[in-house]
TrEMBL record:
It comes from Dreissena polymorpha. It comes from the Eukaryota. This is Uncharacterized protein.
Length: 167
């Protein structure tokens, strides 16, 4: 490895730079997509909130003015639910972004290792690391999903309870 020619070194450096450029591009693309997704989700949530509020207002206007307190509580609950959903979505998106970044970094590291020292040991080690990272990401994603489900169930229960209490 020490007796490496200048031409080969130059080629390796060129390839390295190219790889780095590619990785940076990929990172930028991923970030942009995640941001757009977040914006879309936020807009949808806001629209839903507005729709629910309007619906509730229209429904309760026609009836007697005795149930004003109940209406406010229900609207508040709905708003809270929407906010929670939004927060969860944001968290999920952030997690996905972080995972993408990590993966890109790992890939770059792997490529650099391969380019610089063509060792089978290094390659194997990097592969193992990648596998481990993937497993960890999967586990985290599963956990997040479970949490979301639990929160949703809790919210639904609360809503049901409120509805029963109002009657």
């Amino acid at each position: 490895m020490m007796t490496m020619t200048t031409t080969r070194r130059r080629t390796t450096t060129i390839t390295m730079t190219m790889m780095m450029m590619m990785m940076t591009l990929m990172m930028m693309i991923t970030t942009m997509t995640t941001i757009t997704m977040l914006l879309v989700i936020v807009t949808i949530m806001l629209l839903l909130l507005l729709m629910t509020m309007l619906l509730l207002m229209m429904r309760w206007r026609r009836r007697s003015r005795t149930r004003t307190r109940a209406t406010t509580t229900t609207t508040m609950m709905m708003m809270m639910m929407m906010m929670m959903m939004m927060m969860m979505m944001m968290m999920m998106m952030m997690m996905m972004m972080m995972m993408m970044m990590m993966m890109m970094m790992m890939m770059t590291m792997m490529m650099t290792m391969m380019m610089t020292m063509m060792m089978m040991m290094m390659m194997m080690m990097m592969m193992m690391m990648m596998m481990m990272m993937m497993m960890m990401m999967m586990m985290m994603m599963m956990m997040m999903m479970m949490m979301m489900m639990m929160m949703m169930m809790m919210m639904m229960m609360m809503m049901m309870m409120m509805m029963i209490m109002m009657r």
